[in-house]
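PROTEIN DESIGN WORKSHEET
SECTION A - STRUCTURE
LENGTH: 305
TOKENS:
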């Protein structure tokens, strides 16, 4: 097998989140620290990749080709995995050539990069998009943006069991729902599949509606053949993908100081701020217990320093 070590799923600690606004509202939150599972293949990226790598093995592929932007956590994790486990990787990047800490890492990890421009990247969902790339790289297995699709979601389903194994350590018998940031909606869809309606899953959209996250989640859930599902999406994009403003940065700074948990402004920071806004608005009853997934992405902080 080409990717044997990637089939093992690492464990992440579940930690209570102590913040004044949660205490005031009588809400308990525990953070699943996926940012701590690996220094490079971090966050939810490992889980979204695992089923794609299994499929690549079964197809006889020699490596992986995928898509992302100049700060892509997905491409960063994929390139790091390729370097660590010895398989070639190719990245198709949004926009025009630029130097970012992430891009520099991709090159250092040995990933072959192709810049698609913006129009070329928008065509990624069109029929026939992959044909010329598979002709150029016939031995590489194509993985959707962000490790998405049903395989990516399936790889995230074990997160539920990971949390259940640690609830007693918090003194919890159960929880009332999940809260997490959404970039492609893949991790959320995996949790919806795992829960099958048992607990609601709340997604804070880090990208605007025109990115089609709601449609992607619906497509994955439908492909999974679920009889029951319970999820809700909130627009936490603050006006656009990678949009960062002073109130968000101030919230992140205050939260990191109070909790000692590192956040980043594109996903986890936006998701936690949206949770605060919903808690302040009285969406959750006193005594509610939520699982907040720290989806990693801390390497992307370098682009905002």
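SECTION B - SEQUENCE
RESIDUE ASSIGNMENT:
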């Amino acid at each position: 097998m080409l990717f044997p070590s990637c089939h093992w799923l690492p464990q992440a600690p579940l930690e209570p989140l102590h913040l004044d606004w949660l205490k005031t509202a009588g809400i308990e939150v525990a953070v699943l620290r996926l940012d701590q599972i690996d220094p490079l293949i971090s966050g939810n990226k490992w889980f979204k990749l695992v089923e794609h790598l299994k499929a690549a093995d079964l197809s006889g592929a020699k490596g992986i080709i995928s898509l992302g932007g100049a700060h892509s956590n997905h491409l960063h994790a994929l390139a790091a995995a390729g370097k660590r486990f010895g398989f070639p990787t190719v990245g198709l990047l949004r926009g025009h050539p630029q130097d970012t800490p992430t891009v520099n890492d991709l090159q250092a990890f040995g990933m072959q990069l192709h810049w698609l421009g913006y129009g070329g990247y928008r065509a990624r969902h069109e029929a026939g998009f992959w044909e010329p790339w598979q002709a150029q790289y016939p031995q590489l297995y194509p993985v959707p943006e962000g490790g998405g699709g049903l395989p990516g979601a399936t790889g995230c389903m074990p997160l539920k069991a990971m949390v259940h194994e640690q609830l007693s350590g918090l003194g919890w018998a159960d929880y009332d729902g999940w809260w997490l940031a959404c970039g492609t909606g893949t991790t959320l869809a995996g949790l919806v599949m795992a829960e099958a309606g048992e607990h609601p899953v709340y997604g804070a959209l880090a990208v605007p509606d025109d990115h089609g996250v709601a449609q992607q989640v619906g497509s994955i859930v439908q492909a999974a053949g679920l009889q029951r599902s319970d999820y809700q999406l909130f627009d936490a994009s603050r006006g656009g993908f990678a949009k960062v403003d002073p109130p968000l940065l101030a919230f992140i700074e205050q939260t990191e100081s109070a909790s000692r948990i590192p956040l980043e402004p594109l996903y986890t920071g936006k998701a936690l701020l949206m949770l605060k806004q919903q808690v302040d608005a009285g969406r959750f009853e006193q005594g509610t217990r939520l699982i907040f997934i720290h989806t990693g992405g801390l390497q992307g902080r370098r682009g905002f320093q």
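SECTION C - NOTES
Residues 4-39+151-304 form a domain with the Rossmann fold fold (CATH 3.40.50.1100).
The radius of gyration is 19 Å.
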